[in-house]
Amino acid sequence: MPFMDSIYRPALARLLPVAAACAFAFQTVPAMAFDAPREAAATVPAADSDDPVLRALEPLMEGEFALQAGRLDEAADAYLRAARETGDAGLAERATRIGLLTQDDARTEASLALWGALGGAEEDMLAAEAALSLRQGHDRRARRQLEALIGMPEPGGWRQAFGVLATGGHDPGQSVDVLRYLVRRDRIPAQLEAWMAFGGLALRLDAPDLVDDIVDKVIEHFPGEPRVALLRAGQLREAGREDEAREALGAIEPRALTDPSMRQSVAHEYDRLGDLDLAEQTLAQGPQDDQTYALRASLLARDEDTEGLTALYRELGRDAASPDPQRRLLLGQIAEFLERYDEALAWYEGVPGGPQRWQARLRGANVLHELGRTPAAFDALADVQADPTAPDDARRDAFLLESVLHQEDDDPRAEMEAFARGLSMFPDEPEILYARALAWERRDDIVRAEADFRRILVIEPESVAALNALGYTLADRTDRYQEALELINRARAAQPDNAAIIDSYGWVLYRLGRHREALVELRRALALQEDAEIASHLAEVLWAMGRREEALEVFEQARVIDPDNRALRRALEGLGLPVEPAAPAAPDGDDADEGVQE
C-alpha cells in the first residue's frame, strides 16, 4: 500500500483539516496576535486533549516534516507515536515501512507489533516480518515466514515472497541461501510463472547451482514445458556456456513459437546472447503486427543489418497504400535509420492524423537536421511549438528536441535559449526543467543544475526523479553528503525497491566513507538492474576496499553493458585505468611473439 493511502482512513478524517488549518494559521496570523492576553487563549494543547485524534496531530506533523527532510529515523518514530495515539493500522504500517529503511530494529519491531495488533493484513505483515528477519540475519525465522507467505491461499503470496528475496535482504548471498532452502524443500507453488520468476531471480543473484536445482524441479513438475528451455538457456548463458545456451533455445519446438509471448521471450534470450539476427528471425515467425515489426526493425538496426532492414522496409512498404498512421510512422523510422532521409521525410509528411501525426512532425524535423537543412528543421519545430491545435506534450517535446539538436550542433547558447523559450510558454514544466538541469550538470555548472532540480521540487515536492537526481548530483559532484543522503532517503521512502535510487543510496554511503554498507546496497541495485553506471559504482567501491581483481571484473561487466557510459569512463579515468577495452591478443605464431608477453 502506498504510504499516503494510509492517511486517508476514517479515524484520521478529522485530523487532516486540523493540520491544514494549523499550517494556514502560521502563515496568516499577524505577529501582533501573539501579544493578546493569555486569558484569551484558553485552548487546551493538542497533546493534553482527551481526543486521541488531536493528540496525534503533533507526531503526525512531525512525521511529515521529518519525511520531507529525509530524516527517516525521526519520521518512523513520529508515525509510531501517531499510530499509538489513534490506533490506526495505516499509520502503524507506515511507521513499519519507513522503519525498514532505517537501522533501528527495535523501533521497527515495535511498529510491526502494533500494526499486527491493530489488524494489519496478514500477507503484508508476513512480508514485512520476513524482510526484517533477513535484515537482522535471522535466516531460519525468515524461512518460516516466507514459507507461510508462499503457502497463503491469496495468489499474491508468492509474489510478496519474491519481492522480499529480491529487495528485502541486504546481502544477495543471504537471499540465495533462503531461496535454496525453499526450492530444495519444494516450497515454491506448483505454478510455472512462480518457478520461472524465482529461476530468473537466481540468475540475477548469480547462483548457477541454485538455477540447476530450479531447472530440475521445473522439469519434474512441468514435463515437456518449452519455457523450461528458456530458463536453462539463461542459466547456461550466465555460466558462459553460450553455445549450449543456443542449443537449448534451438530445441524449442516451432509450434511453441506460435505463442507471441513465448516468441518474444526466446527472441529476448537470443538478444542477451548477442545473436540479434537469430532474435529477429524468431520474431519473424508467426503472425505479424506493428509491435512485432517495430521490434524486428529495432533488432536489425542494432545489428547494423542494412540488408535485412531494407528487406523489411520493402515488405512493409507493399502494404502502405492505405493511410495507416502507425505503419507510415514505422516506415519513416526505418527509412531514417537506413539514411534514406528523403523517403523518411515523405513517410512522415504522409502520416494523416491521430497522435502519430505529432510524433511524425517531430521526427520530420530531426530528418531535416540530418539532411543539413538546419534552418528548415528549426522552423518545423517552431511551427509545432506555435501550433494551437497541437497537444501540450507535443509542443513541449518540440522544445526538448530543439535543445537536443542544438547540443548536437555544439551550440550551448542556443540550447539554453530553447529551454528558456520552452519555460516561457510552459512555466515550471518539470520535464524541461529536468532536461535543463542535466544540461547544466554536463557543463559542470552544479549551482544552476541544483537550482532547476529544487524548482521542480517546489512544483512537485514528491517528485522521486528530482529527489534522486538532486541527491545523486550533490553526492557525486559536491561534498554535501549529508544533504544528499536526506534527499535520497526521501526518494527511498517513496520507492524503496527502485534500483536507481538504491544505487544513489549506495553511492552516497560510499562518499560518506561507509564502504561496507555501500557495497551491500550497490550489489542489491545491480542484482535488480544490469546497468553500466551501477556496475561502475560497485567497481569503484571494490577498488577503494582493496579488492582490485574483483573491481576489474565488474568494470569489464560495465564495459560490456555500455562502453560509452559517462560514469564508467569518468571512473576509469579517475583511477588511471584504460578507458578503451584492451586490444585482442595476437594469434599464436612466429609473428605474434612480440608484445604478447610483458
From TrEMBL:
Return the TPR repeat spans.
Answer: 532-565
**Keywords associated with the record:** Signal, TPR repeat
Determine the domain of life of the protein's source.
Answer: Bacteria
Ranges for the region named Disordered are 579-598
Acidic residues: bias regions: 588-598
The signal peptide annotation in the UniProt record is 1-33
Cross-referenced SUPFAM superfamilies: TPR-like
Which Pfam family, an example, fits this chain? TPR_16
Entries under InterPro entries matching the protein = TPR-like_helical_dom_sf, TPR_rpt
SMART domains per the UniProt record, alphabetical: TPR
Q: What is this protein called?
A: Tetratricopeptide repeat protein
Q: Specify the species.
A: Marilutibacter penaei
